[in-house]
Write a structure and sequence with these properties.
Layout (H helix, E strand, L loop, with lengths): L15 E8 L6 E6 L5 E2 L2 E3 L6 H13 L1 E14 L4 E13 L7 E7 L1 H7 L2 H15 L7 E5 L4 E4 L1
Parallel strand pairs: 1-6, 5-8
Antiparallel strand pairs: 1-4, 2-3, 2-7, 5-6, 8-9
Length: 158
Amino acid sequence: MQKGWVHRVDPLAGHSVSVAAIVVDADLRVLAIRRRDTGEWQPPGGVLEPDEEIEAGLVREVWEETGADVVPLALTGLYKNVDQGILALVFRCDVVGGELRPTAEAAEVCWMTLPEVDAKMDEVFAVRVHDALEYIRRDLTGGPAVRHHDGRTLVGSR
């Protein structure tokens, strides 16, 4: 290394960044999808393109998976899959248009009650819903949740 050269390590090298939307209707039901590839229920979202702005990627992913047009309201949680190196940014969103429909990525799109979320979603996805609702209940105080998981189970949290 040359004198005066500073080597900076990219902290996200080898990681991917995903986004997800927690969308709640007037009856306190949460928008959910059943993925075609895994059959698992989760909030809509997906991986950002390298050159994509975060909120634009979130809006794109939700529309691609559900047909809903959303507007992000607040970042409610950061979730790292320590086994796969995926950092997920989760936002509370409102629907502003579109029409819900199954898609190439989502075999089913529906509104779920919180008991249904708890029964059908893996812990690492259900906790994102609960964290988002709790953050909004606290009037955005205390900051977003920060949690780590192995893909199915939480391994540490704040």
